[in-house]
Design a protein that fits this description.
CATH superfamily of chain B: Cytochrome-c3 Hydrogenase, chain B
Shape of chain A: flat
Structural class of chain A: alpha+beta
Number of strands of chain B: 8
Largest interface: A-B, 28 and 31 residues
Bound molecules: iron/sulfur cluster
Order of helices and strands of chain A: HEEEHEHEHEEHH
CATH topology of chain A: Alpha-Beta Plaits
CATH topology of chain B: Cytochrome-c3 Hydrogenase, chain B
Oligomer: heterodimer
Distance between the termini of chain A: 93 Å
Radius of gyration of chain A: 26 Å
Helix content of chain A: 40-55%
CATH architecture of chain B: Orthogonal Bundle
Largest sheet of chain A: 3 strands, antiparallel
CATH class of chain B: Mainly Alpha
Number of domains of chain A: 1
Chain lengths: 187, 380
Amino acid sequence: MLNSVKGMMLTLASTFQGLRKPVTREYPKAPTPVQPRFMGFPALTWDNDVGEPFCTGCMVCIRNCPTQCMSASMMDNPLQQEGQSHRRKIVDYFEINLNRCILCGICVEVCNFDAIVMSHEHEMSTYERNGDRVALPALLEIGQKYQRETNWIPPTVLAKAKKDAEDATKAAEEAKAETAAAVQEAD
Amino acid sequence: MAEIPTNLTANPPVNAEPVEMLLNMGPQHPSTHGVFRMVLWVDGEKIVDVEPHIGYLHRGSEKLCEGEQYHQVITLFDRLDYVANFNNELVYCQAVEKLMGLEVPERAEYVRVILCELNRIASHLLYVGTIGLDAGAMTPTMFAFRGRERIQSVFEAVSGARMMHNYFRIGGIKEDLPDNFEQLIAELLPLLREDVEESDRILTFNEIFLTRLKDVGTISAEEAIDFGFTGPCLRGCGIEYDVRKAQPYSIYDRFDFDIPIGLDGDCWDRHWVRVREMYESLKIIEQALEQMPGGEVVSSLGRRLIRPPAGEVYMRAENPRGEIGVHLISNGTDRPYRLKVRPPSFCNLSAIRRLLTDSWIADSVVILGSLDIVLGEVDR
Ligand code: SF4
Ligand code: SF4
């Protein structure tokens, strides 16, 4: 008996020590913010400069997906024939079964064309049994929403900018060293 | 009107016939920590015999590994022990690296250790919460889950997912830590220490908790070794064995930390070992953050297809639950030929019959809880 009371006192003391703001959120009413790297459902991106998807339907992501939840096919790009685009092939049909997807992000990692992203979309409920099999237009819509919300810049562009900057600083340093050497020689 | 007996004592009347009853516990029992079923033969409140039934969560992970390429197998390892995802990824990646003789960038090793130790704390916090529930305390659960939630937010910032990270790669990690990581972890660590201390203070030396756990489910060191116990369950018996010290992998030999051990090998000792392990993990994280160098983190392999040479390798590491081992056989193709996991939970669970026999029904929940099993790993 005494032991129980002692134990309860300990709990009570800790409760009063722990009186502070609640850390929980009323989730469905108040949205939970996600971190920038959050991996939601995969989605396809849209090339605003040309007005077509980045995806060429090359199927690299499909071969690398651990759950085989995607399918795609490619076609000749009509915009390229008109001379507006540099992509010879373009995606014709693309579908991801989001019920099957495990949100691993491998598809994003292997894509060579910046065409697929892990969006911040993570709530999806549908009325049909196969409602989570999302086809190209819906995927592009999710992707465009993601692009708008995060000011998305294609990762290859980012990497290139970074490399260019590095090269520039390196070249500048070399030039500096050369002038310094020249100055020394002149001395 | 029948007379109400007033001389009730603890001992049953001598002439009472023992009646053996069969009690099904699980697979949906909330305190079996997953889908685990125990058939208990009970005599009154005493457990006479136990028959554990596992396999409700069997997904055939080992077989699935044979059909996946090496880089895809990481996603399956995330789902083995779904409370300690980073630790699982680490042991698999290290097995493949060992087979290929691959060097991991220095910074990547530090990132791995930091994340693994954070995950160990998260896992132990979950354990503290559930053992509290098992012993009848609701409050520590809330405190422990608050701390766990904080860790998971950092995981989300780092890897993009709260649980199924898929962040470690063979020969490195996926990408460098986010730019605000230093700030995140600087905010996290003091809060985390507070959380650990709080759940420790409220539970460990609580009278009720002590009464429920002390001298319950005792197992001697020899028996524990015979059953293949590892991790906190073995250290609870007083044996100082930790793979991080016994056979340091990754860069664990660079850190200064102790191996907490228990005395009697009962439920409370197992609990106390885990609680003190959290402090040790915090120590490791602090040291690792101090020593962490800059530089490259991604694998030198780039995005080439991983094709280890034909051969066999066994790699072990310290999971929050014990020693996890991966036996990998490669035949030189891009998929493992065979992959066998030595799951710590399974080996610890194997003693359930010995531990439960001759104990009380009410204690069965605590004993099972103190083993800290994860069914995803038991059933694979
Ligand atoms: S998303 Fe990328 S990898 Fe997948 S088909 Fe399109 S271009 Fe190829
Ligand atoms: S996230 Fe993973 S499972 Fe989902 S589509 Fe991409 S590769 Fe497949």
